[in-house]
Amino acid sequence: MIRRLSIGLVAILATAAFCGENDEPDIAMVPSSFTDLTAEIDLALDDDPEWIIAGSSRLLRQLEDGAAADLLITADAETMDRAIADGLVDSTLGVVARNRLVFAVAPDNPGGIAAVEDLGNADLFLGICAPEVPCGRLAATAVDALSVDVAADTEEPNVRALALKIARGELDGGLIYATDALAFSLDTVDDERLASFVTDYVAASVHGGTTGIPAFLRSDDGRALLESRGFIVP
Amino acid sequence: MPAALAVAILTIPLIGLLQRAPWSSIVERLTTDAVVDAVRVSLIVSVSAAIACVLVGLPLAWVMARSTRRGIAALRVIVLLPMVLPPVVGGTALLFALGRRGLFGEWLDRWFGITLPFTTTGAVVAATFVAMPFFVTTVESALRDAGPDLDEAAATLGAGPWATFVHVTLPSIRPAIGAGLALSWARALGEFGATITFAGSLGGRTRTLPVETFLALETDPESAIAISVLLLAISVAVLVLLRGRWLQR
Fold this sequence. Notes:
The complex is a heterodimer. Chain A is α/β, with parallel strands linked by helices. Chain A is built from 9 helices and 9 strands. Chain A has helices spanning 2-23, 38-44, 56-64, 77-85, 134-145, 159-167, 178-183, 213-218, 220-228; strands spanning 27-30, 50-53, 71-74, 91-105, 126-129, 154-156, 173-177, 187-188, 198-205. By secondary structure, chain B is mostly helical. Chain B is 79% helix and 0% strand. Chain B contains 13 helices and no strands. In chain B, helix 4 crosses helix 7 and helix 12 packs antiparallel against helix 13 (221-245). Chain B is globular and about 65 Å long.
């Protein structure tokens, strides 16, 4: 019984290895905010890339641990700088998209949030991203520059989780990306002072790999797709 | 051989962790304000959750062990569910039920002004949710083993139900209560998914050691490993301590 099982196991492993060598799809590592783009990029490109979607720092850790990949896109330049310093990528392919920080409010704005200063209102339920992740770094930069107090009730490690809590009305508002506000159909505070806080999505080739993704994102179709999802095109 | 393999599966990750630990700087890494806050929050949350498990789990275990009603089988499934459910799913369920806009949470907010998400109490609720099955199943099986004979003998000798429970039943299952307490406390200490989903993450309020570890992994893996070693040490210490005190038969 055990022998038959192990023969079966060997057969399965051999098949898997064989298939892997035959196809070799491009592997693209992209940050969480690219989640909603992958299906449409798949449609636009002839060969479906394999997507690895995670927080930018986590993608770096996977590369460090020897993960196979052809392309890396990080959610901010700082994370890409770290990847370059650690020798994890070959050469950067420049900025492929930008994202803007917005003060999103819960449906029907129960907290009556009207300005960035409301971030300091301790009576409201407010959230930002943890300073360890790109959206939290951008939020910290913004509130520092605007000298706004922040009375956050939670510092989420994941911008999508934060957006969900705002969309559910558990939080009255929070600082998230424009793309996430759009994905969850959230209203945002109309405050021009936030508009200048933008993060760059930087692409880089990994292990000498090439993919059509950066070129597509810079094409007319790619730019239209990015804009329809709330990104700013460079 | 399979037994050796099992031991290997259990110990190899621990060896990997200890080997990567930044021993020379571990004291500095574990005495930062953020880590000290997380230790405090973790101890408050896990101990409160373990106490909550005893307060409501002990009566539940007694009902499950003694009752012969048909609904008990269904009840047992409900009790076991948090053990197999992904904690993130548990946290989402808690949010939909007890969140400010949740089914029951809305009443809590409107009638009593109680909001659970983003509070330490919320973290305790999340930890209790995942830890409860460990206490209830341990104590229930002990109650079942002990059987009703001793209780009935005490009742025959004139002891009331309460006196029987306190003086006869409880002493006979003391080791199981200790074991259940240790298991549920350890589960509460390690709790991550339900906590971050339901209670969020704020230093000094809801950021427990596992959440701190997860955040540290983003930018400072060395510190994350140091905290993991600390969690490991606390867990081993408590399990050894409990084994010495309560678990001997």
